[in-house]
Amino acid sequence: SQIDFYVFEYACSQLKEWARQGKQALPVSVNFSRSSLSHHDFVDRLNRLCRQYGVDKRYLEIELTETALLESHQFEFVKQVLDGFRRIGIAVALDDFGFAYSSLSLLKALEVDTLKLDRTFFLNESKRSRNIVCNVIQLAHSLHMNVVAEGIENMEQVHALREMDCDLIQGYVYSRPISADEFEAWREQYEK
Known about the structure:
Blueprint: H1 2-20, E1 28-32, H2 34-37, H3 42-53, E2 60-65, H4 66-72, H5 75-88, E3 91-97, H6 103-109, E4 114-117, H7 127-142, E5 146-149, H8 155-163, E6 168-169, H9 180-190
Parallel strand pairs: 1-2, 2-3, 3-4, 4-5, 5-6
C-alpha cells in the first residue's frame, strides 16, 4: 500500500511542475488498493500531500476498484472514507465497473463521482452489450456521475460511445501507457 501513496505523491509533484511551467493542469487519477483504505489517517495523509505540493484538488481523482470495495465488506467504513474525500474536495472513481456481480448494489450504497466501465464491456461487442453500456451511461448520468469507457481500441467504438453520450474515453485508440516525458511530447503534438 505504500506504493499507492508514492504514486499519489508523484502525481502531486507532476501537477506542481505543470503549474510551475505555466502549463494547463490536467486531471490525474490514482488507483488505490483496498489495503490503503485501512490506514487510519488515509484521507488526512492525502490532504497533507496536497497541501505540501500546493495542488488544486479538483485535478485529482482517487480510483477504487469495484472488487476491492466488494471484498472489503465494510460499507460503513468505505462510506466514511468516501465522505472524507468529498469533504476535502477529491473526486472518487469506481474503477472496473461491471466486472463483479454486485455492481448495482455499490451504486446504491456508495456515492462516487465517476464510473469507469470495465473493458470487458467492449470485448466481442454485440448489440446487446452496446445496449447495456448505453443504459449504464444513462443510469450513471441520472445519478450525477461521469462515465469513462476503459480499454477502447478503435474509432468505431469511440463514435458509438460519443453517440451514447459517454463523457470520457480511455484506451489504446489514443495512446498506450507512457511516461510523463512522453506524455508532454504527446500533449504538445495533440494541442497543435
